[in-house]
Amino acid sequence: MNPGMSFKYQSIDSSEKMPVCGRSELSLACITQGSSAMQVRWFKDDAAINVQTSYRSHVDNSGTKEFQKTKKGW
């Protein structure tokens, strides 16, 4: 690791299933901390979700990044 870089990493692998009804909102939190840009990947049914092509995103006033599914979604 580069001596000028530091990061905190915690992986959470949950097998707990929670049903979400169609058109329902779901909120998932991911908090990162480090001295350089962090990369976060989300998965659904063991497949990586491409948030660049499946979602529109914006950052609200609190600094929370929100994603909204597009028609190109899953």
Automatic annotation (TrEMBL):
Residues 24-63 form the Immunoglobulin I-set domain. Coiled coil: none annotated. InterPro entries: Ig-like_dom_sf, Ig-like_fold, Ig_I-set. Signal peptide: none annotated. This is Immunoglobulin I-set domain-containing protein.
